[in-house]
Amino acid sequence: MDKQQLQEAFDASGIERVKVGGFDVDGLLRGKYMSLEKFWSAVDKGFGFCDVIFGWDSADALYDNAKVTGWHSGYPDTRARIDLDTFRVLPSEPTTACFLVDFWTDDRHPHPACPRNLLKTVVARCQAAGFQPRCGMELEYWLFKEDAESLRAKSYGDLTPLSPGMFGYSWVRIGQNHALIDDLYRQLTAFGVRIEGFHTETGPGVYETALRYSDAVSAADAAALFKTTMKILCAQHGISVTFMAKWNPDLPGSSGHIHQSLLDSTAEKNLFADPGAADGLSTTARQYIGGLVSLSPDLTALFSPTINSYKRYVPGMWAPMTASWGVENRTCSIRAIPGGSATRVEFRQPAADLNPYIALAGCLAAGLHGVEKALEPPPASSGDATEAQAAPALPTTLERAVHQLENSDLVRQVLPEAFVEHYVITRKWELREYARSVTDWELARYFEAI
Predict the structure, then answer these.
(1) Tens digit of pLDDT for each residue in 221-267?
(2) Does the pLDDT value for residue 316 go beyond 80?
(3) Is residue 433 assigned to a domain?
(4) Do 323 and 386 belong together in one domain?
(5) Same domain, 91 and 145
(6) What DSSP designation does 340 have?
(7) Cα diameter, the chain
(8) From CA 325, how far away is CA 345, in angstroms rounded?
(9) Which structural domain range is residue 205 located in?
(10) Do 94 and 135 belong to one domain?
(11) Which residues contact 200 (CB under 8 A, 6 or more apart)?
């Protein structure tokens, strides 16, 4: 969409103001409103955005170990460029246009901490090799009859779920909550977040949404905007939503599965499909899987970014413990799905707390590495592969994952070193913040007994 087309779209929709924003390392959408005059000026020249968004954590606490910005630099503006192709209109604010931005240090250099530019860099490498990635995400999340105030008043415990009981794939539960589901479906669709599937999962108030596949950047946009917009729309119904990997120790976790394939340069032929192969998978698909198996242990901190992410990595909770793969095997971290033009791999390691841009960049970088190096994967797993002995073990704590990421020379070959360095710094900060905390578990276990 060019500027003239955009002006016509604004006039047709009666746009009165604009909301612009970009995603930080933790996957939070940081943005603001703009007047139309300011917006049209920014379309041509970009605009300044305080780079503190890359200098603080998800709770707005300033890093004391960051290099890309900080007190030493004075938290200057970084350059934000508006992506006109991300034009949307907020369903609940029909006179407000919305756009995503990418962050740059200057006119030539992407900001090293910008997740969306990270993904664009990896996609460009795929395209240079003759591949067009196609991706789609499935996210699980929990809905509660709570608002922001009641969540805090209850200290995030003793919450009332949207519906009680364990009703996976329940026709009844969706029907009982159809007013909410219908509104979410309509507003998300109107916002350009296309949904393929919407169903209950196993647990009180837990749902899964499958998002329509598309090119890699658009797929990450859709997933990131889905998480953000769900929080806005649910609040309008007096409902809260969490995408935590594991909010309750007695209930299943929330997965964030990533479906991915490579098409040829014309985006017409699925290069993962081989009808003549016994398993329906091409050599390219097998090598891509080989890259994921080889690199996913070192990349785990990118796929599982929080302390809480690793509460999901326990046996019997549908989360992989090893870098395993198998054909139509949901106990593996990589599930190969043959199906002609729909042939793809489903990467099942991440949880819903993932940053879609960073996780997808890690997948594509690992898969492309496997294709470039012609890596043959280990034998496919059959049966329960949760703890397959022949498969590489995945880190089960953030501390171990950060250590592997920081010390992996291979990761720095497939991803920009400046991003890896900054990301490691942010996860070390996360570990330090956790180490300083006193949890409810500690109080209940030790306060009186010790």
Answers:
(1) 999 999 999 999 999 999 999 999 999 999 999 999 999 999 999 99
(2) no
(3) no
(4) yes
(5) no
(6) G
(7) 71
(8) 9
(9) 127-415
(10) no
(11) 167, 168, 169, 170, 173, 174, 206, 207, 208
Q: What is the mean pLDDT of residues 140-169?
A: 95
Residues 249 and 107 in one domain: no
Residue 319 domain flag: yes
Does residue 195 have a pLDDT over 90? yes
231 with 342, same domain? yes
How many structural domains comprise the chain?
2
The predicted pLDDT at position 127 comes to: 98
pLDDT of residue 238: 96
CATH code of 266's domain: 3.30.590.10
Q: In a 10 Å sphere around its CB, with 0-12 CB exposed, 13-18 middle and 19+ buried, how is residue 78 labelled? A: buried
Whether 18 maps to a domain, the answer reads: no
- Give the dihedral sign, CA 278/279/280/282: negative
Looking at every residue in the chain, the average pLDDT score rounds to 95
Q: Pull the structure tokens for residue 170.
A: 């329940």
Q: Do 260 and 382 lie in a common domain?
A: yes
175 plus 298 within the same structural domain: yes
Let me know whether 132 and 175 are in one domain: yes
What are the beta bridge partners of residue 62? 56
Instruction: Tell me which of 54, 85, 113 is where a domain ends.
Output: 113
Per-residue pLDDT reduced to its tens digit, 351-392: 999 999 999 999 999 999 999 999 999 999 988 887 666 788
Residue 60 DSSP one-character state: -
Residue 183 forms part of a structural domain: yes
The tens digit of pLDDT for each residue in 40-88 reads: 999 989 999 999 999 999 999 999 999 999 999 999 999 999 999 999 9
CA angle 279, 126, 364 (to 5 degrees): 60
**pTM of the complete model beyond 0.85:** yes
Measured CA to CA, the distance from residue 25 to residue 418 in angstroms comes to 13
pLDDT reported for residue 107: 83
Write a three-state SS string for 281-332.
ECHHHHHHHHHHHHHHHHHHHHHCCCCHHHHCCCCCCCCCCECCEEECCCCC
Distance CA(170)–CA(68), nearest Å, equals 48
Per-residue model confidence as pLDDT tens digits over 387-428: 666 788 999 999 999 999 999 999 999 999 999 999 999 999
DSSP SS3 for 337: strand
Last residue of a domain, one of 54, 87, 113: 113
CATH number of the domain within which 35 lies = 3.10.20.70
Burial track 301-310 (b if 16+ CB lie within 10 A, e otherwise)? bbbbbbbbbb
Structure tokens at 402: 């950060």
